[in-house]
Specification:
By secondary structure, this protein is mainly beta. 11% of the residues lie in helices and 29% in strands.
C-alpha cells in the first residue's frame, strides 16, 4: 500500500510541477535586436533540456496564401535564446516546447509586436525630446502620415 501510494504521488507530482515560463510579450523597434527566451524559467524538469520553437502564420495576398514558420524568423529553432532575424508588420506568436531528460514536455508562448511607423498610428505615442537634443527617425527626412504639431 505504501509503495503504491509513493508511485502515484511521484507520477502525480511529476505531471503537475512541470512549468515553462517565457515572461511577458515583447514589443520591438526596427533597430532592436530581439532574443526570445531572455526571461525563460523552467521548473519541475530534469536537465538537460531540448528546445523547440514553433510559429505558424498565414496571410492572404490576393487569391494566394503565404505560410511562414519559426525557421523563417529565428536564427535557430533548437536553442533557448534564438534571435529574430526577420520581422513582420503583424505580431507573431512563438511557442516554446521544452523536453527534459525524462521526455517530459512543457510549453509556453509569447507574442512579439513589431513597431513600424506606418502601423503604429492606432494609438498615441509620447516621447520627450529635451531642448537641444535631436532624434533620427529611421532615415526618413519627412514624417509620412503624421499630423502637426510635431
Amino acid at each position: 500500500m505504501i509503495l503504491l501510494s509513493f508511485i502515484l504521488l511521484v507520477a502525480y507530482s511529476n505531471g503537475l510541477q512541470c512549468q515553462v515560463e517565457l515572461g511577458p510579450d515583447l514589443t520591438s523597434c526596427p533597430e532592436d535586436s530581439i532574443y526570445l527566451g531572455q526571461n525563460l524559467s523552467i521548473a519541475g524538469m530534469v536537465a538537460p533540456y531540448a528546445y523547440s520553437w514553433e510559429s505558424y502564420n498565414s496571410w492572404q495576398i490576393g487569391s494566394s496564401f503565404i505560410e511562414t514558420y519559426a525557421s523563417d524568423y529565428l536564427d535557430d529553432t533548437t536553442i533557448a535564446n534564438p534571435q529574430i532575424v526577420n520581422r513582420e508588420q503583424e505580431p507573431l506568436r512563438f511557442i516554446l516546447t521544452v523536453t527534459d531528460a525524462n521526455g517530459l514536455q512543457c510549453k509556453d508562448s509569447l507574442e512579439v509586436h513589431f513597431s513600424w511607423f506606418m502601423f503604429t498610428l492606432a494609438g498615441p505615442k509620447v516621447e520627450y525630446i529635451n531642448q537641444g537634443d535631436s532624434v533620427w527617425l529611421s532615415g526618413m527626412q519627412n514624417i509620412v502620415g503624421m499630423l502637426p504639431p510635431f
